[in-house]
Amino acid sequence: MSLDFDTRFDPAYGQTVAVADGVVRLTANNPSAFTFHGTNSYIIGTDTLAVLDPGPNDDAHLEALLRAIAGRPVSHIFVSHTHRDHSPLAARLKALTGAVTVAEGPHRSARPLRIGEVAPLDASSDTDFIPDLTVADGQVVDGDGWCMRAVLTPGHAANHAAFALEGSGILFSADHVMAWSTSIVAPPDGAMSDYMASLDKLIERDDSTYLPGHGGPVVSPQIFVRGLKAHRQMREAAILERLAAGDSSIPDIVRAIYRNTDPSLYGAAGLSVLAHLEDLVGRGQAASNEAPAIDSVYSLVK
User: Fold this and answer.
1) 92 touches 128 (CB < 8 A)
2) Separation between Cα atoms, residue 183 and residue 186, nearest integer Å
3) pTM higher than 0.85 for the full model?
4) Cα(300)–Cα(302) distance, rounded to whole angstroms?
5) How far apart are CA 63 and CA 167, in angstroms?
6) Each residue of 217-257: pLDDT tens digit?
7) Which residues on neighbouring strands pair with residue 300, listed in sequence order?
8) What does the radius of gyration of the chain's CA atoms come to, in whole angstroms?
9) What is the SS3 assignment for 64?
C-alpha cells in the first residue's frame, strides 16, 4: 500500500490558524529534523478553553498562547506525551491559568533499562511533568462546550495518548500519526510492538481527520494508517531479509536498507531497526546473543 507524505505546511509562527470549528492551532518556532516546522499546540473551545500540548518551554510561544487565550478561562491542559517539545510549557501555563493538567501519566520507558544501558532519548524526556489527572483508555473529560476522550496510543512513547474531540470526527494524534513523516520509535523510550498495536486500534476507529503534533492534518486517516502499518511491515521484512543474507549487526542492516538516507540520520535509523529487532526477537522470528541492544549480534530464526 502506497504511503504518500504531505509536507505542505505553513507554521505561521505566533499566529492562530483555525483548523476546525472551535479549534485553533499555534505552532512553536522549534523546527528540527524531528519536529518538522515545530510543535503544534491546539486551543479548543470558545468560552472556557482547553489547551492541548502547550509545547516547549519557550517564552515567545507562551506569549502567543496567552494572546490567543485572550483572558478567557482555561480549565484543562492536555498533554499527549512527555517529550520536551510537547509538555514542558504546561507548568508555566498552569501557573498562569489554574488549569488542570491531563495526561496518561508521567514519563516512563516502555521497558526497564538493562544494566549498563543508556536511554538515547533521555535528553528529550520531560521527567518533571506530573499530571493532575491521569486518564485511562476511553476516559472522557468534559469541558465547556467540548468533550475529549482519551485514546491511549503507546509506541512512540510509553505514555503517548491521542485525544478525540467527541462529536467532531477529530482525533488529536500527536506524534503517533503525522502526515509529513513516520513516527520515531526508539527503545527503551518506545516499543514497536506497542506502536503496531496502537495503529491497529486507530484503524478500527472512524475518525475523519487527525490533527497531529507536527505538520498539517491527516485526511482519510484509516487509509493513511493502513499505509503506515504496511510501511512498518515492509521494513520488518527488509530486516529479516538482511538477517537471512548474513547481516548480524544493526550498523550493517542500516547501511543496507537505508542506502538513500543521509548518513547523519543513521543513528535514528539504527534505533528504528532496534525497535523492529526487539519485536522480532520477542515474537521468536529473530535471535540475539543477549537482550536486544544496539551492539547485539542478531540472527534469523529458521
Assistant:
1) no
2) 10
3) yes
4) 6
5) 31
6) 999 999 999 999 999 999 999 999 999 999 999 999 999 99
7) 286
8) 19
9) helix
